[in-house]
Design goal:
Elements: H1 4-13, H2 19-30, H3 35-39, H4 49-61, H5 84-97, H6 100-113, H7 123-126, H8 133-141, H9 151-180, E1 186-187, H10 197-203, E2 208-209, E3 214-215, E4 222-223, E5 234-241, H11 247-261, E6 266-273, E7 277-279, H12 287-292, H13 302-310, E8 319-325, H14 333-345, E9 349-354, E10 356-357, E11 361-362, H15 366-374, E12 379-380, H16 387-395, H17 400-412
Parallel strand pairs: 5-6, 5-8, 8-9, 9-12
Antiparallel strand pairs: 1-4, 2-3, 6-7, 10-11
Helix pairs in contact: 1-2, 2-4, 4-5, 8-11, 9-11, 9-16, 13-14
Amino acid sequence: MQNGSSGERFGERGQGMDDKKRISRWRLILGQESRERFAGMGGGEPSGELDLMDQALAAIYNRTENGGFGTASGGRGAGSGPSSPQITRWLGDVRSLFDKELVTVIQGDAMTRCGLKQLIFEPELLENLEPDVNLAATILMLKDQIPKRSKESVRGFIKKIVEEINKLLEQDIRRAVTAAVNKRKHSPIPSAAALDYKMTISRNLKHYNPELKTIVPEHFYFFDRTSTTAANKWKVILDIDQSGSMGESVIYSSIMSCILASMSSLTTHIVAFDTNIVDLTEKCEDPVDLLFGFQLGGGTDIDKSVAYCQSLIENPSRTLFFLISDLMEGGNRAALLRRLEEMKASGVTVLCLLALADGGRPYYDAQIAQKIAGMGIPCFACNPQMLPELLERAFKRQDLTAFQKELEKRRQT
């Protein structure tokens, strides 16, 4: 395979170019092995930035020994293997030459095609890697192999990804939960986290200031968070599959768990399972610590984990249970289905979030998902950005099956 792994993106950008530029772009797409054919068409070798792009792509896509990486002296396809300083320089070039989305694709290809996994724990290499969920999942799977000198660098890399996802989800999740939980009672005690936006805006519409083009509220309304007792608190249980295919889903689920656990209006439990069960609730103060508590890989016994989660339920009508899994059950499937049906019949709001892989593509056992959905338990293969809306609807006891169909329509349009 040549530079064409990422090349069509360059072809798309080339629309509207003159013939010479278009030929140069196609030469870049098809790689260095095509130089003679393009020379016969009047196309020269790439120059300037295109030449740098060509060299960067050739390092991993050209059919040479070690994928094009040579010794530290820079010879392509030669030497005993890639050196860390050379790879670090290459990563820096890639990040300066290509768009962020394309950088993550190229990084991933470099890891799989050129055998660079043994180098991803080099501190200087981690500093040059673009934060990426797929790569973070790979690192978490190999975390037991992290050398001591690299542990802090690895944690720093994972932390950057956590912070990016947290910025994406935290505000919306907090808003969604606050809008749905304890929405009837109000308190005179000011609290930014408990602000009732809807009532505050509606009651202050008459105070709109035309000059400032905004509402200047004279009175703010806050939810009464102190009225939430242990007896009537919502309990959220996240039962997270930690088998090998769950890397991306584990990262998103961990961050969502920590956000929910930080809200005083909820009681949150985080359970991880493969063929064994680990209660990670005590680690939910720090999403990085929580992620390192997972042991990605191994078999799957979903029924056993659901049985453990059942023991945590005290008030079924105020319990929201998430099963986050690819549903590749290695245990007793019939028992799993019976247990989920019992949980739902007792009054628990049961949801299944299906595994995501390869940048958001759903990956799961379709047959068992269909059986679970047939019991009236919605199985969502949704983008992480949909989680806040899903949470709000669940807490408000809205029809989640209808929401599932709505999401399917959104994906098709």
